[in-house]
Queue: 4 jobs
Job 1
Amino acid sequence: CLFQPTIQPCGICEDFNSHSFSSSSGRDRFHNVWHHLQTFGIQPVEVTDNGFASIAAGTGNTGNVLVNTEFALGKWFGKSQINGIRISAGSSTAFLDNDDGGANRDFNVNLCADYLCNLTTLFSDRKSRVFDLLFIGGIGSYFPGAEANTPIVLNGRFGFQGQMRLSEHMGVWVEPRINLFKDKSYRADLQEPIRGTIGVMIGTSYKF
């Protein structure tokens, strides 16, 4: 290593030959930057550390039948992993009564960003456990179908997730949640200033 000999070689140093650079000078500059960071006590952090991915399906109280699907990526922060974020993309298909006595299919896609708080870790010292209770709250946007009054509907949501660990990396969970949005921003014929819908998702997650 080119800098202070008291600095311990990092993983990047030991595996340095595996990185691809266009020139030896570029290799040296990259190497030097990491050692300067170490001098100030800053360690390289992998983006995927404490990350997870999940898939889920569920239902709710919109229309006669509602089917929701969701895929999400998230990350826990710090050694305690109490606080985290989750970015999700999903779809909703509802069947609504029409004037002819039948049902119209209402399809939309959505994007959401959620804050996660692991309540079990927050209030318990136990490091080895099989169950976690999370509080979840966030904001998102729906992109509804052709009958909607606007192309984008903003919403807020909150809920709780109970997760059962199957292994070090895998888990299954149930998440009851409440969604809030303005009626008239969704359909002009709806009159309530704010509407709340209740749903539940069942899913599985994989921790990186």
Job 2
Amino acid sequence: RKKKKQKNSRKWFDMTPQPAIQNIIAFYTQILDAKCTDIQITDADKDNLSQRLLPYFQQPIGESTSTGIWSVFYDHLTDNDTDIPNGKKDDIMYLVDTHIDVIRFSQQVIIRLKQFLSEKQVQTEIPESSYDKLLDLTIRRSEHLQNGDESQETVIREIIDDFEDMLESHNVDIPNEDKIQSENPAIIYGTDYGELTSAIEELVETLPI
């Protein structure tokens, strides 16, 4: 596995981060539009939802926090339009629930990638803002996997490629004995690549598809 000929890390590094809270509010707004409800999400609504969601995103999402996030949107739906048929409301909340699963999976991937760097004793300080960008990309990749738009193999490869782009933007390399036998190897190479692939595959098992 050789290093990609033309890296796109500068473009990656300049991306505007989209925190997970903004991501799920945008997703919720899209669902309301797609389901033809009369609910209009104003900027004030988004700010209010952000404040209510914040406590649940101050730590990796678990079962209890998933329930809390779900309840924030359910309460908003109920408070703003009690005339929505129960079937449509249930449909909306089901889609919100599946997106919470995507965000939870993506958070677990980032935690595993951080653990990988710790195991490799990488000393470079990588700012949380870079991990925020990586989380946003991982959420998008995971959506493609959950929707069946891309295969598991493709999505895992893309996640690792995004991770490499982040590392390259901070001039981080991962030493590996296998690299000695290769010209211009990728940052994550050989057994390290296999280890990360297997770890993400295990996490995919927790993602409802």
Job 3
Amino acid sequence: APQVLIQIVHWLDSPLHTAEGRGLLWQIAWDLGLPSPPEILVREGREWLQRNVDLNPWNHIWQRLWKYGEQDEEMAEMGELWLEFAGEHPGWGYVFAALVDSGRKGETLTRIGLLGLRQCPISIWDPYFWPKVLALEPSREDFLQNMVLRISRCRIGPVIEKGAVFVEEFRQKERDLNFVAAVLEGSPELPSWGLFWQRLTAIKPTVPS
């Protein structure tokens, strides 16, 4: 394994490889080098991230470095930059969760969290995503409005069920948030509008109908 690792590190410097190819080779070398990858891979991985933010392996390389302990401000800012323009990437939630779980907060990450509610593909992972956005302390109104619209777009039954419970529990803790009904009333064209309304009404019969 050490010889293979040395060979792959040597290949990384070859001009014959595309940036994406080097990214894939870097991941192989990194995994072979664990639990103590050589410092040259840390340096080359960070340099690759700075140069290739638009390429597919980006989130995988960032996650490996972040998990290893490369969690300084530069890495955090690179993660935020990627999140801002990669809202539809399937790996978006993992990078976002890593930043939030590290305790990072701030206006930029909060805005990114709300952007994720609007743009990030909906999946069975969603119920784990909502509390992470809420932990960033966004405007309660912005958060709830984006949540209502997100669940109204969802086509996954269990996620709609959990979304209705989450929204209603959140709504009960706040005052003057009856605009949830206004948001729903203004969005009847969304695919799960009716089902979400039904679920909310079943949980809390006082939701306007």
Job 4
Amino acid sequence: VGTDLQRIPSTVVFRMDLDPLPLKTVFRNALKTAVMLAETGRDIYFIIRHMLVNGLTGQQWYDRARKAGIRFLRISAPEDVTVTQSQDRAMLSIKETSLSGMGIQVQIDAGCLVVPERYEPKNEMADLASILAADHNFSGVLASSNIWMGPAGSQRRGLYFVNSEDDETDVSLAMETVFLDIADTAVSQTEAVSDVSINKKRCQGCL
């Protein structure tokens, strides 16, 4: 955005719906930028399919965005948005999901259309996932089957990872998980528990 706010038009649209969807870190930075612009009196719109907020601070930024007057327009697919360029402006026609049954489309005359950088995982990611016995998340990057960043599921015990999609909230949760897991392992090696049974048939997917 820079510091020269006078150069930024009065109406700005952020397109956060295109495939592949932006990473959480990109979404968070876009939300922070949008809030700053909205608090200067500009009209700010977000076009979304899913609102990606992460952790307590992510929710706080979303609430702040709503309070600042940012309008979130939800669509079902990128094809629900038609963009026509007219000189230095972008004319958008949007099939918003809550209005689709009424045959109404949202029309926006935007002085600035922001399309964030989108990450596409390389082909080698599948090979790396196979080596680590790990899963992919919806973006195609490595991810633990446990959304709270548990063990990677590797044959090598004690292997954890944080991928390129994770932000500071994920890293903090990952570190907490690692330390708790280490502590639990240390306790289990020094204390024998004889009165606990495990239904292996029911839990075999996570053992």
